[in-house]
Amino acid sequence: MTEKVPSTARLLVRNFAGNLTGMFGLLVIFLIITSAIFAEEISGYNPNLMDGMSTSLSPSTDHLMGTDQLGRDVFSRVLYGGRNSILIGITASFLGNLIGTVLGAIAGYLGGKIDTVLIRISELFMTFPQLVLVLIFVTIMGQGVNNVIIIFALTGWMTTLRLVRSEFLSLREEAFVEADRAFGFSKKRIIFRHLLPNTMSPIVVAFTINIAIYIIAEAGLSFLGLGVPVTTPTWGNLLSAAQAPVVVEQYWWLWVFPAVAIIAFVTGVNFVGDGLRDVLDPRQRTNAKNKTFAATLREKLFGSRKQTIE
Amino acid sequence: MSKEIVFTEPLYQAKGIKKYFPVTGGVLRRKIGEVKALDGVDLDIYRGETISIIGESGCGKTTLGRMLAVLQKPTGGELSFDFGDGLKNVVGLNRTEELAFRRRVQMIFQDPYTSFNPRQRVGAAIDEVLQVHGMKDPEERFSRIKESCEMVNMRVEYLQRYPHEFSGGQRQRLAIARCLAIRPELIIADEIVSALDVSIQAQIINLLRQIQRETGLSFVFITHDVAVARYVGHRIAVMYLGSVVEILPAGALPENAEHPYTIALLSAVPDMNLQGKKKEIVLQGEVPSPIDAPSGCAFSTRCPYVMDICKTTRPVLRLAYEADSSHQVACHLEKPPIGA
């Protein structure tokens, strides 16, 4: 009992460091984000600079991923595109989660009529196919990075609401909530200072997974020409070049590289999400097999290491 | 008990408290009945006394505790508290008044394992209570926390730990300290020892008695353990099926009791003194369901002395026959069943 017990955050870091797939995902994400941030320094080309002398070149040492029909460097476009795609994914996921968390907390804690109304609204949104909903919003609001972010946030808060609501429904029966009320704590304080921190782990997991979903959604939308205007490079816009059969057949570098970037980032994010779920909440461990595999691999690589948590 | 308790002006008064929970059924979730958890409870709590509330499972003692702490609103009846200038209603107060009330009336809960936020250090939890109640000076808060920890024999250094690092007994002491920190006038303790080992129970109970003696604050001690109730309380309120059937001095023997249920309850406690144990009521049957409780006296279905009036008219609390003012009973019998 006298031994100093590490804080939750430190436990989290320590346990996550032991999660092989999670760490791998983190590494991939880190590499992609860093290269997107330092796009200017890394690529050496302006992504929008058209060079009439070098159109449709296949990958070479000059142009690592080749050039497109307008002579723009694909590598730099993938890097800059990553900036926008990741920005859309993270911001939309954050905003959507924020809406879902706040509404879910209110619905779950207060219950009654407010709960019924919020749940019904979320069901209304969910019964609509999301793509149709997105198309409607795009038509109303027009294209653009900001609009896409807002649209994703507006159409993607329902699962978080249900998640947070159900957590709150069980948490509000705990004696400490009752005690808080007996001490005269305000509802706001109970919801946001006491209950929300206890709901953080599923929210964090939902946040990471949603990033992946939105990046793919952006790609799909831009592929259809409904997402971000073509003048702004995103992974989805780069992919939409593959709409022409001739590109698919002859200019493979135009679509393979952005596709690989998307797959790598999304896989990385999902790995991190799964890792966080394992570390944050042992009850929700869905993939026990994967876990034991990671554990055995870790043992083989680093020798058996006892994890002292308690 | 150092100070004499004055049984004239109550600190807290419950009058005809009712709590009905709707029972819904069918596809349309229509109301098909009511659980009468509390059906007209009268209770006066005086300054400086500990009143124990006993009764079997489901008799409404926990619901009564929650009513007194105004964690739920009663379906009917009045709750009034003496803020220093006479009794004042406490249900449906505005925010400022509510805080003033909650500062004076505190509650400790049964389960010590969930009564602290698992992600908050216990010291911060106590501190937060003081902050909510408007203590701005950190030094002052710290000295207050230190003082309340000393009262429950808890080392101040332990306060930076998380709740899961404590045992059940320690946590219950911390819960007491958290209540004491804001210096309440009344603490409602709901089955606070029933989740603990017997040895720890004794420790907590003695601690409560000591705190009561030193501070002179009032306690409502809810328990199902008759021995504990008698040891801790000055008075005992006996509950049966949602109503208080008798309030008697803690030292009273089964022979002094005037309600048949109280006699049965008190005489059911195992006693070392076999000679002294003469008359005893052994109850037959089961407690009726609170959904369709008897219309007259709640106990009328099992009472060995039942009369016609018992089945139709509900008895109210009145002074007992051989009574000082602290002994009240709700019974139609014209003389005590097995008195002297």
From TrEMBL, chain B:
Entry's transmembrane regions: none
Key words of the record: ATP-binding, Nucleotide-binding, Transport
Residues annotated as domain ABC transporter: 12-266
KW Nucleotide-binding (keyword) present: yes
GO biological process annotation, one example: transmembrane transport
A GO molecular-function annotation: ATP hydrolysis activity
Family stated for the protein in its record: Belongs to the ABC transporter superfamily.
Protein name (record): ABC transporter domain-containing protein
Gene source species: Actinobacteria bacterium BACL2 MAG-121001-bin67
Organism lineage: Bacteria, Bacillati, Actinomycetota, Actinomycetes, Actinomycetes incertae sedis
